[in-house]
Predict the structure.
Amino acid sequence: MKILVVDDVGYSCHFHARLIEKFGYRCCSATSGFEALNLLKTDNDINIVITDLMMRGMDGVDLFKEAQHLERFTDDGPLDPPQFILMTALRLEKNSNDKDIQRLKLAQELGVSKIMFKPLDQDELHETIKDMVMGAPEGSVNNQSVDLYTPAQKIKDAVKEIIKSGNPGAAEQFIECLNGEVNALQEFLSKMETVQKQ
């Protein structure tokens, strides 16, 4: 597993790459979207991309779109596209008609895994990466990876919204919904254990 850091500002690229290594992960870096795309084509160990939004030539959104169409393979078969963390100094609440803000909104619509605002909160970045690394466990019967990070993040966001709203009724309904899904997963695991014993 390797993390790719992409930023056309040299010192920022270097800083974030060293930070990733400090977290204990292997890291490589690129100073343009085009360089990053070439690395993704040749290095199948890259599972996560941390990229700046605004870059000359190919920005972070275009890099994300291009990465979704790359054909990457290992001996076990095709690889899923890497997960993306998009870094930006922009703020959605300001200059909402600005073309750069529109690019940020497009990134959200396209399904970028995570958008983080500069200066990055190092603890949040570390937790996000840990969640992403855990998000596609191996060992399934058909070796099919599953993106757990995106739905898990949506659940966390929903919990935050419920707490922020101060609505206990919504909290109870959400817990009931989650309990139902937990029961379904427990039944699935029981069936899998039965199958494996046969």
About this structure: The first strand starts at residue 2 and ends at 6. Helices lie at 10-22, 33-42, 60-67, 99-110, 122-134, 149-165, 168-197. Confidence is low (pLDDT under 50) at residues 136-144. The first helix runs from residue 10 to 22.
